[in-house]
Amino acid sequence: MITRRNAWKTDELGSLCRALLTLGTEDEMALFLRDLCTRNEIDELSSRWTVATLLEAGLPYREISERTGVSTTTIGRVNEWRRHGMGGYRLALERARGIDNG
């Protein structure tokens, strides 16, 4: 049942998620993203991920903005979703930490 909370979960998104899950390496994922997204979209996604990792490390907004060039408004938005979103950032951050430590 689709509720207001998960109305964004379309069949098309499910198909994209399944395609992403078929990719087994960083290189495969990079190739797919390059074909799927514009360079600006890739840069935007990469920047948001970098912001999430820097927030997780405890850096203040101003320092993150200076390092990345991302506005403090966007940093605040990423932080809000990181802390109170659907849990996707949290899951990826925890798993990435395991890869980085493992």
Structure description:
By secondary structure, this protein is mostly helical. It is 74% helix and 0% strand. The longest helix has 18 residues, at 39-56.
Global mean pLDDT: 93
Class by alpha and beta content: mainly alpha
Shape: globular
**Termini Cα gap:** 39 Å
Pattern of helices and strands: HHHHHH
Query: Major sheet: size, sense and barrel closure?
Result: none
Quaternary form: single chain
List low-confidence stretches: none
Count of beta strands: 0
Radius of gyration: 15 Å
**What share of the residues lie within helices?**
over 70%
**Tally the helices: what do you get?**
6
Q: How big a fraction of the residues is strand?
A: under 5%
Indicate the topology.
Blueprint: H1 11-21, H2 26-36, H3 39-56, H4 61-68, H5 72-84, H6 88-101
Write a short abstract of this structure:
With 102 residues, the protein is mostly helical.
What labels describe this entry?
globular; about 75% helix; mainly alpha
